[in-house]
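Discussion board: Methods & Data

I've been asked by a reviewer to show the raw model output for two of the constructs in my manuscript, not just the figures. I'm not sure how much to include, so I'm pasting the format here to get opinions. Each protein appears as its amino acid sequence followed by a line of discrete structure tokens. Is this the kind of thing reviewers expect to see in a supplement, or should I convert it first? Here is construct A:
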Amino acid sequence: MASSMQNNRVSPPGYCVCCRTCNMWCWRAFKWLPVLLIVSIVTWSYYAYVIQLCIFTIESTVQQCIYLVLYHILLIMFAWSYWRTIFADIKPIPEKYKLPETELEKLLSAETEDAQRTILENFAKDLPIVTRTMSGSVRYCNRCVLVKPDRAHHCSICSRCVLKMDHHCPWVNNCVCFHNYKFFMLFLGYALLYCLFVMSTCLPYFIRFWKGDFGMSGSAGRYHIVFAFFVALMFAISLGSLFGYHCYLVAHNRTTLEAFRAPMFRGGADKNGFSIGAYNNFKEVFGNSPNLWIVPVFTSAGDGCEYPVRREHRLQTFSAPHDARYDSMGTTRSRSENGDSPPASHIP
């Protein structure tokens, strides 16, 4: 641990600043390729569905209008959610978690792991953290020089620590985390509905073309409709499994990282340590306003740093300020607002 506190990287001989800058911009451009691929597929699907199916193939005007209205509603919600997931404002870790220069100097000059652990424990004693490393010490990031808040992790792609990190998704070129997890869930849900709608409305014409009844469709239009059906089917299968898995994670209040490695508390690992009941788990991500649950606006509860935990972990938590407590969704309220005097803690 002592050697890991320092992160000195020596560039190879002849490696100039210009080359480093060029590599950085090339890497940034490369990371946008999956997003451009998704945008290209959606753009093509718009042409295939609106132009080739609705305008050139469907003969009924009423059916055209119904299909076009429903299609554009799903497309707008899908694109809106995708945009918010990509360009969400991923806020940095609060300053109170960062080691000041004096503490950092002590940490780097400590000769033993026990001394380093003591320094981190003393610094973190007033921080609202309940999770630990596998060895029981405070979770510390030597790259960002900070104590990690609960559920925060360092993303090697973004080169920063991220609050409630779920995973880094190349398809959105962003970390899926506290600040955009609701948008990511809506993106998956609307993308799945979009694919199912395209697939179900193209299916009758796909069967007709398969039987040789081409109607008013030209050869190029037939191929676009057939390909649209197969592409929608392929993505629906993939999105269905992914969306179902993340619905399971939301219901159990876990991230993808926590599903693979349970968070460690003072009493040991507990994969359900942050679970407060399926409904409360859902509201922690989607908020308390039902009318905004399906709209890609930020309504998630809390600040991304502090979370309610299960009853058995209550006595292991930090000593919270005497003038604040958590409500059922992990937000803080003063005693004067609650009208009672129990100490601040986490709900079961």
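Construct B, same format:
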Amino acid sequence: MFEITARLLRNQSSVFLCGETVEVFVTISNHSLPEHRISQSNIDAMEHLAWGSVQINGYCKTQHKIKEPVQSLPKTSLNVHENSILSTEPKILFCDLRLANGESRTYYYREQLPPNCPPTYKGIDIKYYYKVTVATQRLGSKVQLLQVPIRVLPLFNIEDKVEPIPAQGDDITNEELTPTNPFLENDRKVVSKVEIALETLQNITARRRPNFYIITNRRGKIGRFCLFKPSYKLGEDIVGSLDFSCRSVRCVQLSVTLQCEEILLRNTPKSPVSDKESKSSTGKVTNFTKHHEICVGLLQTQMILPIPLHVTPSFTTDLVDVRWRLHFQFVTTTSNELMPVDGPTEENWNGPKSIDIETMVWNLPINIHSTNPTQIFQPQLLN
């Protein structure tokens, strides 16, 4: 019996950014024979594998009969079916492998993910997922597959936000003023696009730019909301404050929910609408973290909503648009019976049994981006 194990080179994580390189160690071990010494005359007892290969496969599952555009798939791809959206060129690990009892061989595999591939996403109507597929075959037997799931995060688009780094030999004003040592080789570090994207992402999400919103309904002003920054990374906390000192309408209670909105962009047999209409329509919503508070008598309060590490950041493909927003619900009243009147009856005051209320709903879009995948702990799944 052969035992095949695959171990990702990235420690304690199976998370990668689009455009990153996936590195895997594949180990083939022979545990099929009884424990005895293999002699030269008993060479026929050795186990034999005809070949082995590795590739990365991406899939898309939907509830509708629509297909995501598929990249050109190699003819030798092993796991191509109607749900395939990505299949890298298979790389041969070995041919005609013979192993004695207790013997093992380890092979190294690396492959770069496409920078524009859809991220891993488990939605309501659509699902994207990726697997590293290890395939082996004995002579006269079926092909056996070992699939290792990996999680892919979207790469931050830096084409319009970052100036290109000049190549070696280009004119660089700052370097011309730097003292150089003629006895040392010019070891200029080549910065990858992924590193530039992570650095740009850090600068954007770390920038505090408070935005203020005046919240009103048809009866008057409820308060003022402050969001300290509009862009966040996975694992960060969304922090905001509410000021009711400027109100003309009393807020009884409020709730804020972090929501993910999934909007299909393609035409479906059940709803033949244009892409423009689909983008403007309301999609299906999934709730995540929530903040709820009774705010009777409060002049100021704050809310903190953590962003889970397991969710998918904002992204758009030809098939779906995934957005994030803060969903507010304000319960207001114009009744004056909620607060005691100053005077001798204040100590014996009891709240009213019922009041007339009005609920106001408000959605505030926010941007959620990827984080450094090495900071996400996700155990490797080996099949």
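Answer (T.O., handling editor elsewhere):
This is acceptable in a supplement if you add a one-line summary per construct. For B, something like: The helical segments are 173-176, 193-206, 275-280.
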